[in-house]
Amino acid sequence: MQAPVKPADGATPEPVTAPVVTSRRAPRGRAANARPVGRSRSVTPVLVRQLRNGIEESVHRGDIVEVDIDGRIVRVVGDPERVVTLRSAVKPFGAVALLDAGGLEAFDLSPAELAIMAGSHSGEDVHVRTLQAVFRRAGVRQSYLATGTVDMPLDKLTAARLARDGEAPGEIRHMCSGQHAVFILLSRLRGWDPGDYWRPEHPSQVAYRSAVARAFGTEPRRLRTATDNCGIETFAFPLREVARAYAMLADPAAIAGNDSRSALALQLTVVRDAMAANPEMVGGTHDRVDTSLMKTLPGRVISKAGAEGLRAVAILPAARSGASRSAATGLALTIEDGDGFGRASGSASIEALHQAGIVDDRALRELARYHRPPATDPRGHVIGEAVPDFDLAPVGELIS
Which residue segment(s) compose the domain that 375 sits in? Predict the structure, then answer.
């Protein structure tokens, strides 16, 4: 397959149909299962293998794609057109709704406060204090939050302390409370009743939906929606479009002038810079892949997990080792089984960034606990590990 040709200025890029690329170890003796509408009939490639003393216990299959800001595929393994729900990966784009409404100035929001609205925090005390400060300054009650508290907070140490002290976690400790703060602040700013902000017809949801549609170059009425676990809408797109949106987040100033999304360049830059400066607000102070990636590669990537094994990474210009200047790209991946063990998405993400030249050997060592997450026995001895095993092939090297 030939590499796609860049269109002339003002022209619309031609869509690239990439082949479905398998991992280097193709599954043997298994027919492809029937798949929902929109899925390839090919067997999804293996990305990560769970090994115990060299014995393969299980595998995690998935799809990865890296694209440039115009949507051209740079690297791919698997199906770049697989439709995924954004879940929490939508948050950087939804936060634009509050910026559009003048919320940054009206509530004097700091970069850390904006970052927590674009992130999925761990529910630690620092996250609670940050959001409470916003609510006090805005003159709204945190009791409006309607996230629920199931399985929260994410931070195990905080959860253990609350349980020890007999304290039930409030909804402000939910990983999505920063996102929900956007709806409450929009309501405060516009004079809307925030009591049922979570309903799809609420004007704050309408504004958020519009911001997401603009970021993805479509219209609200054309969005494919579902309901997230925190009770609000989420949106579905092909994996390649997720990667492209994150490429735009990486370098908003490079969005083509004839693309309607160029009007969002200022807002996306503010969100990107807030996340880059405050990785602990995007995730947590420890044991979060997104936070660790951004701290290990400062100013080079913005990483944001979704759910069910989704992760998207904005790769900023000059992020690649040894590059004086390179174009921004976006990378998105999904794990077919949903990554219920929490090991495959991080492992595949870091390996993909390593193959793409973003994570160098030093960074790979720093991220080793995510790259090849170990299994240990009760005495702390390593008895197994998850091992990434795929080739993220540059499109120019693929053979059709």
Answer: 83-395
